[in-house]
Design goal:
Helices cover 28% and strands 33% of the residues. By secondary structure, it is an alpha+beta fold. 44% of the residues are buried.
Length: 687
Amino acid sequence: MKEYTGDKIRNVAIVGHGGAGTTSVTEALLFRSGAISRMCKVEDGQTTTDYEPEEIKRGVSVNATLAPVEWRDTKINFIDTPGFADFVAEVKGAFRAVDSALIVVCATSGVQVGTEQCWKLAEEAGLPRIIFVNKMDRENADFDSILDNLRGKFGKQVLPLQLPLGKEDNFQGIIDLYKMKAYRANGNGSDEIDIPEEYQAAAEEAREKMIESAVEADDDCMMRYLEGEEISNEEILKCLIKGIRSAQIHPMLCGSAYKNIGLGRLMSAIIDYTYPAILNDYVVMDKETGEEEIRDAGAPTAALVFKTTSDPFVGRLSFFRVFSGCIKSDSIVHNARREEDEKIGNVFTMRGKNQIPMKEIPAGDIGVVAKLQFTSTGDTLCDKAQDVEFPPIEFPMPMYTRAIYATKKGDEDKISNALSRLMDEDPTIIVTKNTVTKETLISGMGDQHIEIIMERMQRKFGVSAELRAPIVEYRETIRAAAEVEGKHKKQSGGHGQYGHVVIKMEPLPPGGGFEFVDKIFGGAVPRQYIPAVEKGMMESMEEGALAGYPVVDVRITLLDGSYHSVDSSEMAFKIASHMAFEKAMEKCKPVLLEPIYNLEVTCADSMMGDVIGDLNTKRGRILGMQPTDDGMQIVSAQVPYAEIAEYAVDLRAITQGLGTFSMKFDHYEDVPARMAEKIIADHKAEK
């Protein structure tokens, strides 16, 4: 591959709903540009960008994959991204490396959940958007209805720059409204022809609307247009470029990846309309002053690592976008966040899994380097003399949690090391240890995400594990007070054991924890044994009488007792304390408590009724509803954790993937009697 300067580079993320054809479009662009000699289908499992076994098995993209092409003496770094919500982190990372987004829409399905999500993320990132309507050769493909659908969702800024030539099976090419020419496909290219007579009127009408929308981007052109003056083609092009780059216009193109129609003109549109990679200024924080500053491509070296992958053979691969300066092979850069210097080995780019050697990665380009020692996703690589840091990549919080158990005894350390490596690769994985249940918990974006993590762990690190629902952290407490005694007396010749305590157990308010009160007078229990009594009570609280869960919110008062000058010991008093605790729990009306979480669900207004109805079936208490600035609704509720362990899956089904939620522990409440009976019975059966 040639070396390109930043003015001859474009960086584009290809996004869309799963199944719209993002990977097929990427494959077709690679083939049309000559980067690959054979175009493969997703079903064949041999596409350039879906090469991981997990992707081939499922027929869906899981990773954001780099796919550079050369077209019209320009390098376009395409990044093919996953279309499913579970892998949104890949999209978020890619959006920090690119200057525009190519939104792929299916010509029969139109705007789907993933389309809306990608659009929203691109909007938040401030990226210009080009829409490519794929699968125009399919049965029931209808360009006009898709246009209405897009405008209904994203506004009148959606502007066709092309019309389809033919329909469904007879789809043959496109009509360019700017040049007012038709292009009929002829294999791996197209023939320029005059617009057929039956399309002439529709093309003229669409061109007029294109001009009307284009001139709105420039006040001078708009005034002249309104006064009846003719606007030249060159001026129309300038207006289109201005409108597209400022996201006032969202150009709509069409074609078919399968038939290789419209791909060349799509790449030309990207080159003509989107930002050259070095034109975008960027924001960093000066580490010395703590101030934000706006810099351009001429500033000292600054690059953002937007993706990391772990390979058992090659090691860690860091994907980075250079915003200014240059990163060369065999050089040293500074990691601003870790405050460590990194030795750069060979730099290269990648097309799918294939490495393409590079001498250097200039400003505006995307590169890859292996085996960086300290660097992970979101880190800044810069010139040490100009220590700056990019704002962090804001990844969504994981919403789905499973407990992970080793399938082979002794594999726990291997699992821990593998998960640590995978967390480097995917920032939306969080691994924690629950000190109460002793479980290792893995959290991700959804069930499919977690499944793929497990498969990847087996494939890359040779360690397998099984997933289970996390143990619910129930608690036990009491609702009444009682006085009891515990006496431990054992004599079987020789040194005996003797401990005797009288205690009062009573409930504390919720959140009261544990209180131990010493009311011994006259040495009924010697001072040296009282800590053993308290310790015995605390140990007993670790496993309650109902279902073996920890006991909370109780006060235990040591009232009286007795001892033996020879046979008493700390152990004897601990045993007596255990006995007294068990008796007291039986008399103090023990109850089972369950954790209650505050849940905030963000969904579309039209879905709010379904969300609330579902929460009601989960014993949820609705606390209120609140509209957001972007037209969504936030439903606040309190729900038992036992009912929402699978909520990420449930909410996706209810909202077709558009809903999100956050949850936080709030307090404990009594478990309903019927449920408590089942939990207690299950515990007894297990024991």
